[in-house]
Each structure stands twice: as structure tokens, then as C-alpha cells.
Amino acid sequence: AQSVTQLGSHVSVSEGALVLLRCNYSSSVPPYLFWYVQYPNQGLQLLLKYTTGATLVKGINGFEAEFKKSETSFHLTKPSAHMSDAAEYFCAVRAGGYQKVTFGTGTKLQVIP
Amino acid sequence: KAGVTQTPRYLIKTRGQQVTLSCSPISGHRSVSWYQQTPGQGLQFLFEYFSETQRNKGNFPGRFSGRQFSNSRSEMNVSTLELGDSALYLCASTEPGTVNEQFFGPGTRLTVL
């Protein structure tokens, strides 16, 4: 079985401040991990993914995430928030092979000018 | 390449009716997954099709069904609509391979009155 927990359904940061969105996962096998972003009235867009190898993954729009097996975490960060980062962010896990993808409940990011 | 397309984008139905939603994946993608997104439940996995076969299935009642055609296009059907079926239905396609991310369409917004 696999699951994802995103801590904080709403996060507010000031423009220029650090963005930190938390994601913890559960998987019985080495997982594949993803972060997606959703803007209003749109589908989801991939920000970054972890499969194997380097545990620090860089994505689009300046985002990155670090896979920490010992903490079963895959937190998303961005050094400096921009107004355009305001959106909903989803963490997802696929427990290898052809298993279904399980999404977290999402975190809405508000950026305050 | 063209992205994932979903039709229609918006739909209004009444209780008891049935509805069919369509999804055309990115050219070359053979896997199509469907999700239901609601404010209360987040993204819930419905089913996944690969080469016309259902590969994974979520925990939805039998009123929800789907199929995939030889050209990888997929449809999902909901019979005997209930008010709680109002949601954004998202389709995602994946390239062949086990670790590739899903590409999402813009969704179909279904409102059941």
C-alpha cells in the first residue's frame, strides 16, 4: 500500500520569502515521487520527479525537492517566492512498477505582496 | 506535440442521467488514467487503461466505468448521476515506461443538478 500526507492545506508566504511545502509518503517498495502544480481551472503540471539516483531534484520555475528515505519525506522548496507561484501543489507517489499514482490532498500556496 | 485534450470542458446534467466524457492522450502515449477532483476529497483515482485493458481501478461504485480504444483515446461513463458526482474529472496520459510522469488535460467540469 502507498499513501501521501501533505502537511498544511494552506500556506502563506511573503513575496521573496522561502517556500516550503511538506510531503511525507508511505510505500512498501522504493517509491517514485512527484510534485505537481495546479492553477485555477487548469489540469496539473509536473514540477519535478524523483525516480532513482540523486536525492536532490531540481524542477521548473526554480523549485526543488529532496528525497529523504530515513524521514520518508519529499519536501518542496523554492528560495524566493514570486506572485506567480500562487497555486495548489500536489505531492504524489507511485510504488514502482505499474502501480497507480496516489496524490496528497494538496496545499494551496498564497503569496502576499 | 498536442497536449491531452478532454471534451466537453463543461457539462450540466440532472440526477439520474448518464454522462460520457472523452479524453485524447498525447500522441504515442498508451496509458490513460482518470481522476475525480472535489474540494472535499481531493484527487481520487478512478481507473487506468493501458493498450485497451484496465490495469488499475480505484474504489468507486460500478456506476463509473471506462474504456480505451485502439487509438488510445479513452472514455469514461457515469450512469445514474448523483449530486455528489459533481466534480472536475481529469484525464492523464503517460509515455510507455514505468517511471514517467503523467500529463494532465484541463479537465471536464461536471455539475449535477
List keywords for this structure.
heterodimer, A: 113 residues, mainly beta, 5-stranded antiparallel β-sheet, 11 strands, 0% helix, B: mainly beta, globular
Q: Could you give the distance between the termini of chain A?
A: 41 Å
How many beta-strand elements of chain A?
A: 11
Overall geometry of chain B comes to globular
How many separate helices of chain B? 0
Main β-sheet description of chain A: 6 strands, mixed
The ordered string of helix (H) and strand (E) elements of chain B is: EEEEEEEEEEE
* Helix content class of chain B: under 10%
Uncertain segments of chain A of ≥5 residues (pLDDT<50)? none
The geometry of chain A reads as globular
Structural class of chain A: mainly beta
Radius of gyration of chain A: 13 Å
- Which structural class is indicated by helix and strand composition of chain B? mainly beta
End-to-end gap of chain B? 37 Å
Helical amount of chain A = under 10%
Q: Report strand % of chain A.
A: over 45%
Radius of gyration of chain B: 13 Å
Describe the structure.
- The complex is a heterodimer of chains A (113) and B (113).
- With 113 residues, chain A is mostly beta strands.
- Helices cover 0% and strands 58% of the residues of chain A.
- Chain A has strands at 2-7, 10-14, 19-27, 32-38, 44-50, 56-58, 64-68, 73-78, 87-94, 101-103, 107-112.
- In chain A, strands 2, 4, 5, 9, 10 and 11 form a six-stranded mixed sheet that branches.
- Chain A is globular.
- With 113 residues, chain B is mostly beta strands.
- Chain B has no helices and eleven strands.
- Chain B has strands at 5-7, 10-13, 19-24, 31-38, 42-50, 53-57, 64-68, 74-78, 87-94, 102-104, 108-112.
- In chain B, the strands form two sheets. In chain B, strands 2, 4, 5, 6, 9, 10 and 11 form a seven-stranded mixed sheet that branches.
- In chain B, a hairpin with a 7-residue loop joins strand 9 and strand 10 (102-104).
- The radius of gyration of chain B is 13 Å and the shape is globular.
- Chain A binds chain B through residues 32, 34, 36, 41-46, 49, 51, 90, 94, 96-106, and chain B through 4, 33, 35, 42-43, 45, 48, 50, 55-56, 58, 90, 92, 98-99, 101-107.
